[in-house]
Amino acid sequence: MGRRALLAAGAAPLIVPASALGLGKPSPSNRVAVAMIGVGRQTVFVNLKQLLAMPEVDVVAICDVDSWRLEQSKARIEAHYAKTRPSGSYKGCKTVRDYREVLADKSIDGVMISTPDHWHVPMSLDAVKAGKDVSCEKPLTRTIAEGRALANAVAKYKRVFRTDS
């Protein structure tokens, strides 16, 4: 091995972050920014816990019409992420009351929809049209026609869609 090759091999760990080599935390470019639409019981006791445990996911926004639920969930999310920051502080969780604001945010990759059942399909349709990937609680649809419309939209807009069960 020549000097240049040896120098390049020795310098590689100083230049390439361990996360890019799959050796550490996921790199920022491999992280998924997720918003929670609806922060009721299912979100608080199940969905949020699971998403916060995923190192490749950042819960960056929450949406609900209930101000108390928004503040409680925001506090939980920010406390979780504060533990991972050297400063011990984190204030990066956006709160909104209108889900369309979440869908308009280009920095958000996907949404977790945990709202009352009759909102599942309308919100999911709006989300895939906005270019968001979707995870949605069950029951997904109220009718076969809603299911067909949603499946067609997911295919048309080439989005990832999953139903939680």
Q: Class by helix and strand content?
A: alpha/beta
Sheet with the most strands, sense and barrel status = 6 strands, parallel
Strands of the widest sheet, in order across it, are: 3-2-1-4-5-6
DSSP strand content: 15-25%
Mean of all residue-level pLDDT scores = 87
Order of helices and strands: HEHEHEHEHEHE
Number of helices, counting only DSSP H or I runs of 4 residues or more: 6
Low-confidence stretches: 3-21
Q: Cα distance, first to last residue?
A: 56 Å
Relative helix content: 40-55%
What's the count of strands? 6
Whole-number radius of gyration?
Answer: 19 Å
Describe the oligomeric state of these chains in a short phrase. Answer: single chain
Shape: globular
